[in-house]
Task: structure prediction
Amino acid sequence: MRNLFSTKVKVLVVLAILLSIALAIASGVSNTSVVDLAVKGALAPFRAASTALTSMAEKYYGYMFRYEALAAENEVLKKQLSEMEDTARQAESVSRENQRLRKGLNLLETHEDYKLVDAYIIGWSSSDWENTLTINRGTNSGIQVNMCAITENGEVVGLVTEVGLNYAVVTTILDSTLEISGTISSSGYNGMVKGGYIDGHQTLLQMNYLPSAAIIRNKEQVVTSGSTVYPRGLIMGNIVDAGFEETGIAKYALLDPAAEINSLEQVFIITEYTTEATTTSTTTGTTTGTGTGATEETTAATEPTVTSETSPDGGFG
Result:
């Protein structure tokens, strides 16, 4: 036991001597005292930990700085994208307007007697029985009550029923209070076209008082018959169905409106036009329409003025 203890002591003494020699040599090389070297050695682990924490802090700060910079850049890019989208929408709107105006000019070339005022739609009002829109033109643009509103393609939109200095209200063809005398283009049969009251088909028009023997075909076009309110030949819609009225003595036809009323941006008001009206069987006179007629036309249904097929059972073609 004594030998073991003396051996351990000897080992410790030798290690102490070697450490002292190493410290003395390091002190001589670096001109640092032995105590300083001992202190530095003891503090080395703490310095390493401090260095690691400092590095982590720097990395976190750098991350936060980059995040703020990226967030600011993101906001700038969002603003630029929004501005680009606005520019694209404006360009599309201008392009659509140019197309409408070109078609309006083509319409004027076809109908030289027309005088048109273009207007933008600024408001809508719609219910089961009423369908109106408000435009940004009024009396200061020459618009009056009972002037006809159309699209750039010559499709009936409705009739001006209220007007102010810089606005007007148009009762559309879908409104139940508006009746227009119409003609089936291919056969010449006349009837009264009205909207707004067809159960399950609120977006369709109904043409009433057609002859019971009339052959009515799908996709046939219906146009205005002509009056002091509506020029002749304006497109109202295309037939999608037909049947007998409740009385059984006349037929009706359902029409898909030519004008897409609910997606319109712009309309054209006919402020003046010339229409031909037959005053006698041999004399034809001309009158100028200025939109002074009544809201409801009362023209009775008539037989066609051109040769057409008829059928005893009045079937749907």
In short: Residues 277-287, 292-317 have pLDDT under 50 and may be disordered. The chain has two domains: 34-110, 115-289. Residues 34-110 form the longest helix (77 residues).
